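It is worth pausing here to work through a concrete case rather than discussing structure prediction in the abstract. The textbook approach is simple: state the sequence, then state the predicted structure, then interpret. We follow exactly that order.
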Amino acid sequence: AGLPMNDPRNGLKFVDIPGGFIANFSNLERAVLYWFDIIKKFGAVNVLTKRHKIEDRVGFLGDKAFYVTRPNSEITRCIKVEKLACIFTNAGASLPQGQDPFVVLKVPHPEYDLCFESSQVLQLVRALKAVYRQVTRGKDLRICNVPTYTEAAVALQLERPDAYEMTMVVPSTKKQLRRGLEKYYKERGLPMPTAQAAVVSPQAKKSATGDGPTASGAAGADPAEKEDVSVPMTDPLGCFLTLVRLPELYLTLYKQHLDLDLLDCLDETDFKNFGVSDPAHISTIRSKRADDAFMAEVEKTVEDARKGGNWQLKSGLSGAPTSTGATPAPQTGGNMEVTLSDDDDLEGLMPVKGGINLDSDDDLPMPPKAAPAIDLDDDDL
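Step two, the predicted structure:
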């Protein structure tokens, strides 16, 4: 689609639809997506059994909203990210074998809350934070870490209100974003970022092929060698790891969608699951994160890097970061204003239920009763 590997507006990596879902979700290949996974959705508690109704669903995150669909791609929930009040999650906590972390998206009335389990919750939390910061122009999404679902349940409204009507928000298409970015960089005399592949360490290559740590937390070891990996000083995680002399860990953690704030959620076992096995490295990360003066230095370095150019540091080097002298890189996370024009490629993008209302802002309208990408028999649902 002519786009860079990451969305410059928020720093998130674009994701493709997994092969096993192409038949029903092929229309979403045109959409800007940052997260896609199978989820187990918790409904309201049954008054007789006192247990939650659990449904298998598919969830995905675009640049405006989070969506829940049935396996046939029919959308049942659409939650605008900017309307999130907070998130409850146990992501990062040590869980029993076979148990996936949960997340609760807390949404004010007239919406209702959404609770589900997924092996990719930690990555979703990171992506939601980045999108929220982008759409609210710099505000931070409140994350409430709770060890068990029971502690979050007391504040939840999982039952659909009688008067509830879903409002559909259409994600941007890749074509829209590409055009918007091209205009943005052209007006500022800057080159359009390209989808160049980064030089990665052997351990990171194993991670990408499934032989090392994965996004779901499979065990792995620290990178054994320090390859020539460019660490962006505009990314708080990259800047932090560089200043603590551990830049070789950047790709290992970044590829698993971890950011600087999420490091605070990890215990020693979690660090090892995400590929940081050296106790000295874990101790260094924890102690420096707790050092307010040091974190202020990290914050200032990131700010200077974003103002002064495309800063980076090679993983084998030490000392203070230096600018490459490249053209100034625009800031992300709510500071980059990219105007997206109407797209003539929206027809059939989102298979939805009938009776969905469109809100009154500038979101693009959808066909009222678009059919799913593929018709399924009742047996398949």
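Step three, interpretation. The radius of gyration is 21 Å. Strands lie at 33-45, 52-62, 65-69, 75-80, 86-89, 102-106, 114-117, 143-145, 230-232, 312-314.
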